[in-house]
Amino acid sequence: MDKDLKKVVVLLAHPNMENSQANKALFDAIKDIEDVAVFNLYEMPDEDILNMDAWSRIISHANAVIYQFPFYWMSAPSLLKKWQDGIFTYLAKTPAVAGKPLLVATTTGSEFDAYRSGGRNRFTVDELLRPYQGGAVHAGMVWQTPFVVYGMGTPDAEKNIALAADLYKKRVMALIGKDKSEDSW
């Protein structure tokens, strides 16, 4: 399960990746980066999701953590919450996460304009992600500006996905400490 202890750990929480367009494109953009380990929580047995010893080792060796998920009802799918309750609650009290960046990478069905004070969803994505930011701050992590891909339920979805995949790869490379031009692939 440790995937050779990489610099960036991505906790992917998507209950239906085979039918995903956006999260699959984001995953495809980073899956072959040498210093990245992606853990798809929905493909893991419960005993691995809640294996404290393994996660302590994985997160202790990482330089950064990413939560990647589709925005479901203004939050993440349930297995990420299960991981947070079972693993992050403990790790937050240890040096394993202190000082490490935490990035949320998420996709929304609605367009950007829906996520504003006067918009259809009434709140910005930043406001809706405050619990993740609060958890990061409480644990001594460095909260990163969320990476949000808007409009998966709109006619612009395909264009938004194509642009986002490249930008996501650049964000992940920055967390590793490399820019895209230094990468050998």
UniProtKB/TrEMBL annotation:
Gene3D superfamilies to which the protein is assigned, alphabetical: 3.40.50.360
Cross-referenced Pfam families: Flavodoxin_2
One of the record's GO molecular function terms: FMN binding
UniProt name for this protein: Flavodoxin-like fold domain-containing protein
Source domain of life: Bacteria
Record keyword Nucleotide-binding present: no
Flavodoxin-like fold domain sequence ranges: 6-171
Cleaved signal peptide residues: none
InterPro entries named among the record's database cross-references: Flavodoxin_fold, Flavoprotein-like_sf, KefG/KefF
Keyword Chaperone set for record: no
Keywords tagged on the record: Oxidoreductase
